[in-house]
């Protein structure tokens, strides 16, 4: 049914909206833009008072804005969840692991459980491209690993490579970028957002007559905070942060304008979000109240991400939804929008929200969502392991939220409808509605494994930059 709706709408739009012959492509393009370290308090359509983001606001005004969408609390847990449609407790990426910097573990394309949305979309006839930040593989060892993960083309910052810091550590200016044609090289005196955006736009121009799946994990505004080409004289941390947000907004506008120029705007579904909240120490203002950045925490400020979906004529305009969703839902949503099917032998945790964004009034939303992620993992004799056997996490529905400890016990119950800042713990409340909510969440917690999975990767020869490791395992996939 969803595929028929998509194809019918695209056909009618291409016939009605333009006198220029459209491509024969029937499937919609999908563009997922994910920022790096930015909370809702820095997007003006979400109430930010210290910044204006007109291009992002235009996406919200012309599309659907989610109020209750979860990322994971930190970088690599979010990225692996997006790619696989699985929660970090299932993939083992419950803690952050900076592969180019720390080595040893990596996102192993050889393992079925690490199948990505890109490989599935490519199987469904899509051209795939990624630009921005990857961080879960080392391009020195696998220069074409993104091809293995399903991307036809890419321009990715390598991450800071230990032992190669002189060229790779520069993040924003003179970035060290890997592409399939030229490998890893420094783009001297260029700004990373410009390099990545130009590469993406070039790809869009070359493939505009094909169905495209585009992934832009933008490396901004992650520290080090610095001036931008548009505002080179800003000095303070907060001024640099604002300048970076304005540059992000400008970049979004540039991409949208290109889609319009190429006459593919009305068949391109844009999804805009961020990987986690703003860094601590940066404070915004919403409704006259200060909102501090809480990246790395499981508070709503840390994981309830800005999340906007836009496609003129296909996604209803001006909609604000309280439906809950999280990053595990992206893979099944992409596949349903492509008219494909999830392979029967591929386990995922997410649920497609394609019917919701297409205006299906019979859509039944998820009953609960989760966010899980900790600080850095650790080296053991058995490989890279997470800090806790059962990682701390939060689970919520449309109204209530619980905090679950590493002992698999519920420590906090919050009513987000009346207490969005999570100041009141109703764990010991005698009210029937609180007892009922707690019973519901306890059943969810009880259904989870007592121990999270370990990262799955095939051990390989040690490298000089690896964190010290003496493995006792045979050369098989560590799980």
Any overview of this molecule?
With 479 residues, the protein is an alpha/beta fold. The chain has 2 domains: 29-366, Alkaline Phosphatase, subunit A; 370-447, Arylsulfatase, C-terminal domain (2-Layer Sandwich), CATH 3.30.1120. The protein contains 14 helices and 20 strands. The strands form 5 sheets. Strands 7-6-5-4-8-1-9-12-2-13 form a 10-stranded mixed beta sheet, sandwiched between helices. Strands 14-18-19-20 form a 4-stranded antiparallel beta sheet, covered by helices on one side. A two-stranded parallel ribbon has the order 3-15. Strand 4 (127-133), helix 7 and strand 5 form a beta-alpha-beta unit. Helix 9 (192-206) packs parallel to helix 10 (237-261). The model is unreliable at 10-24 and 470-479 (pLDDT under 50).
Features:
Alkaline Phosphatase, subunit A, alpha/beta, 10-stranded mixed sheet, disordered C terminus, Arylsulfatase, C-terminal domain, single chain, 479 residues
In the CATH hierarchy, what is the class of the largest domain?
Alpha Beta
The CATH architecture of the largest domain can be named as 3-Layer(aba) Sandwich
Lateral arrangement of strands in the main beta sheet = 7-6-5-4-8-1-9-12-2-13
| Outline type | globular
The overall number of domains is: 2
- Low-pLDDT segments: 10-24, 470-479
Estimated radius of gyration: 22 Å
**Total DSSP E strands:** 20
Question: What is the helix content?
Answer: 25-40%
Q: Count of DSSP helices?
A: 14
CATH superfamily of the largest domain: Alkaline Phosphatase, subunit A
User: What is the CATH topology classification name of the largest domain?
Assistant: Alkaline Phosphatase, subunit A
The residue-averaged pLDDT reads 93
Task: Supply the helix-strand structural class.
Answer: alpha/beta
For the largest beta-sheet, the strand count, sense and barrel status come to: 10 strands, mixed
Terminal-residue CA separation = 39 Å
Strand content: 15-25%
GO molecular function: arylsulfatase activity; metal ion binding
Pfam families: Sulfatase
Signal peptide: 1-19
Family: Belongs to the sulfatase family.
């Amino acid at each position: 049914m969803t595929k028929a709706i998509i194809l019918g709408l695209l056909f009618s739009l291409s016939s009605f909206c333009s006198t220029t012959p459209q491509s024969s492509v029937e499937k919609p393009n999908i563009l997922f833009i994910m920022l790096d370290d930015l909370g809702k308090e820095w997007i003006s359509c979400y109430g930010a008072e210290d910044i204006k983001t007109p291009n992002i606001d235009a996406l919200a005004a012309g599309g659907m804005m989610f109020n209750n969408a979860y990322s994971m609390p930190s970088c690599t847990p979010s990225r692996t969840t997006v790619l696989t449609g699985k929660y970090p407790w299932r993939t083992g990426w419950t803690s952050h692991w900076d592969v180019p910097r720390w080595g040893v573990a990596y996102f192993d394309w050889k393992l079925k459980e690490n199948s990505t949305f890109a490989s599935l979309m490519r199987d469904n006839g899509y051209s795939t491209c990624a630009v921005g930040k990857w961080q879960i593989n080392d391009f020195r060892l696998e220069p074409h690993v993104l091809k293995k993960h399903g991307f036809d083309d890419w321009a990715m910052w390598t991450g800071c490579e230990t032992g190669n810091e002189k060229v790779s550590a520069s993040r924003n200016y003179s970035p060290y970028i890997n592409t399939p044609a030229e490998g890893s090289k420094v783009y001297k005196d260029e700004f990373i957002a410009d390099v990545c955006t130009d590469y993406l736009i070039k790809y869009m121009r070359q493939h505009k007559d094909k169905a495209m799946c585009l992934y832009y994990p933008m490396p901004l505004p992650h520290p080090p905070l610095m001036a931008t080409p548009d505002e080179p004289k800003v000095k303070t941390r907060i001024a640099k942060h604002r300048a970076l947000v304005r540059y992000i907004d400008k970049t979004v506008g540039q991409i949208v304008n290109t889609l319009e120029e190429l006459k593919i705007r009305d068949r391109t579904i844009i999804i805009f979000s961020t990987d986690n909240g703003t860094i601590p120490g940066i404070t915004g203002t919403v409704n006259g109240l200060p909102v501090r950045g809480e990246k790395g925490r499981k508070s709503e400020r840390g994981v309830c991400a800005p999340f906007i979906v836009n496609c003129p004529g296909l996604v209803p305009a001006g909609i604000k939804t309280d439906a809950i969703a999280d990053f595990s839902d992206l893979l099944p949503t992409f596949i349903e929008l492509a008219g494909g099917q999830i392979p029967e032998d591929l386990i995922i945790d997410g649920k497609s929200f394609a019917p919701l964004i297409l205006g299906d009034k019979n859509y039944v939303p998820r009953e609960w969502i989760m966010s899980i992620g900790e600080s850095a993992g650790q080296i053991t004799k058995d490989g890279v392991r997470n800090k806790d056997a059962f990682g701390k996490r939060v689970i919520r529905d449309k109204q209530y939220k619980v905090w679950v400890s590493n002992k698999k016990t519920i420590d906090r119950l919050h009513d987000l409808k009346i207490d969005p800042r999570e100041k009141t713990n109703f764990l010991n409340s005698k009210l029937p509605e609180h007892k009922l909510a707690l019973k519901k969440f306890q059943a969810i917690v009880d259904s989870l494994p007592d121990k999270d999975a370990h990262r799955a990767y095939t051990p390989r020869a040690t490298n000089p930059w690896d964190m010290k490791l003496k493995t006792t395992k045979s050369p098989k996939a560590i799980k």
